[in-house]
Amino acid sequence: MSQHGGNTVEVAQQLGIPADTLIDFSANINPLGAPERVKTLIKDNLACIEKYPDVEYRHLHQKLAAAHHCDPASIIAGNGATELIYSIVRYLKPRKALLLTPGFAEYRRALQQQQSPVEIIDYPLSEKQGFQPDWCLLETLSEVQPDCLFIATPNNPTGLMPDTQFLRALVDYCELHRIALIVDEAFIDFIPNAEGLIQQINSTRHLYILRSLTKFFAIPGLRLGYLISGDTTGIAWLKAHREPWSINAFAALAGEVLLDDQQYIADTHRWLKIQQHYLWTHLSAFSELTVWKPTVNYLFFRCNKSDFDLQSALLEHHILIRHCKNYSGLNASYYRAAVRSEQENRLLIDALEKIFPHG
Ligand SMILES: Cc1ncc(COP(=O)(O)O)c(C=O)c1O
Q1: In a mutational test of the pocket of ligand 1, which residue from 28, 156, 185, 188 has the highest number of ligand atoms less than 8 Å from its CB?
Q2: Three-class SS of 297-359
């Protein structure tokens, strides 16, 4: 079984139904679909498949850097943020890493694939503390003295955003103590006006910020992400040591225009505001569920009915949500569901009303 959501083919095969009859709430992809501009761009540039893309991805790096008002020397694009998680680990060669649990699985996999063994220390985010990191994390850093820390803001699967003041203090602490701080902002574009930490790169050398374009712009099959850091030596090392042409020509082209698509960005924020509220209020109304207030395009919740497999119950309605039992620090009672279109969200709530009839 895959460690990730979006695994409709496997689930449909197990159920003996066609994959396209499943409504997929398990992958957190923008249901507006890829921007029309990108689809047209790809159709109009089919001849690209006959040429190697620029191995340096000069235009792409320039465009991404311009969008973030930084130097192209501070940025490297990748075949999704995932490629860059693996590359940054290869560059940093950490010996002791701290991981927040629950968290995205690929940080651990990347660390475990290092040639020289990495000591991985888990820092559990407890339900008692609202699954949020707080100042105790700084105490742990001082005790454990890792050389690398991964943190996702907002986190996956909880969808929670740590406090801004706390994040700034974390950046300062890691800078002072030369701890490589990898901040994964893969979902931050879903929060209107959220700047994240990119502005901090001018005053830091140990901060690495990951961004993904696959979720917000609905291009997980095309794949594109990037890494921004004030450690320009590190970025140059990553560029020099990467496998050539890992980003396909269409993804590189798309990346040159995506961040300019203000209409799509505004449409997405408009859809999300309404549908996030709809799902949050309706899911919270079920006494069988405890729901954490979402900040982005997915909701994290616990099913309070003991020994009950909510994922299977929803599959009977051809709805696939993400169970969270394979996340370190969680168990089979936790789930994650993406915010989808109005009609699909209604189907989820209708199915839940059948599963948990009231009165
Ligand atoms: C927190 C987080 N970071 C990074 C990624 C990887 O994104 P990409 O599709 O850009 O490789 C994911 C994918 O689910 C994610 O959840």
Answers
A1: 156
A2: CEEEEEECCCCCCHHHHHHCCCEECEECCCCCCCCCCEEEEECCCHHHHHHHHHHHHHHCCCC
Residues 231 and 269 placed together within one structural domain of the fold: no
Structural domain range at position 55? 50-260
DSSP secondary structure code for residue 197 in this structure = T
44 domain-assigned: no
Q: pLDDT by residue (tens digit) across 183-210?
A: 999 999 999 999 999 999 999 999 999 9
Q: Supply the CATH number for residue 106's domain.
A: 3.40.640.10
Rounded to the nearest angstrom, the distance between the alpha carbon of 226 and the centre of ligand 1 is 11
Q: Which residues surround ligand 1 with Cβ inside 6 Å?
A: 80-82, 104, 152, 156, 184, 186, 212, 214, 220, 225
Among 204, 230, 260, identify where a domain stops: 260
Q: What tens digit of pLDDT does each residue of 285-339 get?
A: 999 999 999 999 999 999 999 999 999 999 999 999 999 999 999 999 999 999 9
Cα 27 to the center of its chain, rounded Å: 10
Distance 356 CA to ligand 1 centre (A): 32
- CA distances from residue 107 to 8, 151, 191 in whole angstroms, order as listed: 23, 9, 23
Side chain identity at residue 293, one-letter code: K
Q: What's the 182 CA to ligand 1 centre distance in angstroms?
A: 13
The 3-state DSSP composition of the chain as helix, strand, coil percent (nearest 5) reads: 40, 15, 40
